[in-house]
Amino acid sequence: MVAVAVLLLTATAALASPRSQPSVKADNSDRIGLKLVADNLTSPIALVPAPDLSGRRFIIDQIGVIRILTSEGQLLDKPFLDLRDRLVPLNPQYDERGLLGLAFHPGFGSNGRLFVYYSVPLRSRAPKDWDHTNRLSEFKISADDPNQVDSASEKVLLEDDHPYMNHNGGTVAFGPDNYLYLSIGDGGNKNDIGRGHTPNIGNGQDITKIEGKILRLDIDRGSGYRSPRDNPFVNKHGLNEIFAYGFRNPYRFSFDIGGTHQLFVGDAGQDLYEEVSIVTNGGNYGWNIKEGTHCLNPQDEEHAPEHCRDTGYMDEPLIYPVIEYNHPQEEEAAAAKKEDSEIVGEVVVGGYVYRGEALPQFAGQYVFGDWSREEDEGDGSLLIAKPQDSGKGLWKIRELEIAGNADGRLHHFIVGFGQDAVGEVYVLVKDTLGPAGQTGKVYKLTSAPKS
For 81, which of 52, 66, 125, 221 could close a Cys bridge (C-beta 3.0–4.6 Å)? Predict the structure, then answer.
């Protein structure tokens, strides 16, 4: 279920397919503290800093509101933006729709432009048996109050009719090239099959559809958007908006604010494997031919064929993830085969490359998480990964230990991550399965207190 100054512009070659994710045991350097910075939220899925000098951090709550956390640490009561009256009604028991993404224009401090991605009731032109419509819109800040969006300023840029409730993707972010990137899931259901899915190849592999893709848009030319000329399918067969494809549900992605500014995409898996990929222009990341590095049988996802194609349907190489781990039931099989794979989970939640100062031992490493080992209660895993010493193969994963918790675990559902303007990382959690209640919290990762 539930579920980066030089941008790399050429697809990397496909990697050899490993059979297990390398992992290492955590040591004392992997003990961290957590500082509570916001609570009484419902389903906080992202934290985004303002690209100005205010020091404000903006918390996106799935139920349709964006709240401001000031530089002094105060969570303002009045929403920065409230879209609850425009949202599709959410199921309090479980839902993947809602307010899913926020991005500030790089020139926000002077032009007041921001972009959101959210779920609205199915528009009239959509197939009647489909579920909802996802919308990318631009808003502008209020002329009278820098802590308020002018809700009447909405300009709809893109709409995507979605056949099922799940797999909406939803991250919106500006890359170092100042283009706007958006992740969209494969349309929902499972295995990239069912209504609204392209027969035989699925939406992830169909380059005439935006589902199962990372889009890249130029929103600074004209009143809407244009596709950058170096997008892979401009003036070719395929949609101009596509940057990369072959994804199931790329729910959270981020650009590294340091290094070579790579794009990391966490793509939620089906039943067996979770994955994170470094994504480049024109890359095909395999879904639904593969789940992670492994073959997939869309008609029977738990019984994969031993062999399958290593190229897409245009003979392009499939690009394997840099991070992969198993689901719990697969761990039992791995143990029987004496494979070295200790990290297990249910749904990957993409995070950020750490570039802060509070935890210098993690500099340049990728902090991310898994939603929960259990479906009935929050049991999320806070994880960190770095490349092998050889620079080849899947990255090494470790679980971060939470100081002060007897077993070192988090004891919440992980629903998102954030990174502030100085590179510190935040984990966003809740204690309910669906978007209901007020158990949502935001923690800042800090050094562990000295014992």
Answer: 66
Q: Model-level pTM?
A: 0.93
- Amino acid (one-letter) located at 99: L
Give tens-digit pLDDT for 368-420: 999 999 888 999 999 999 999 999 999 999 999 999 999 999 999 999 999 99
Q: Specify burial of residue 393 (Cβ count, 10 A radius: 0-12, 13-18, 19+).
A: middle
If you search the block for the tokens 């802590």, which residue do you land on?
147
Q: Is 4 helix (H, G, I), strand (E, B) or coil?
A: coil
3-state secondary structure of 334: helix
Cα–Cα separations (whole angstroms), residue 291 to 93, 195, 349, 374: 28, 21, 16, 21
Domains of the chain, by residue range, sit at 28-447
Cα separation, 40 vs 396, in Å, equals: 35
d(C-alpha 370, C-alpha 323), whole Å: 12
DSSP string, 214-251: EEEEB-SSSSS-B--TTSTTTTSSS-TTEEEE--S---
Domain covering 28-447 assigned CATH 2.120.10.30 in the classification: yes
Strands 213-217 and 242-245, bridge-based pairing = antiparallel
The answer to whether residues 284 and 318 touch, using CB atoms and an 8 Å cutoff, is yes
Answer whether 214's CB lies under 8 Å from 249's CB. no
Counted residue by residue, the chain has a size of 451
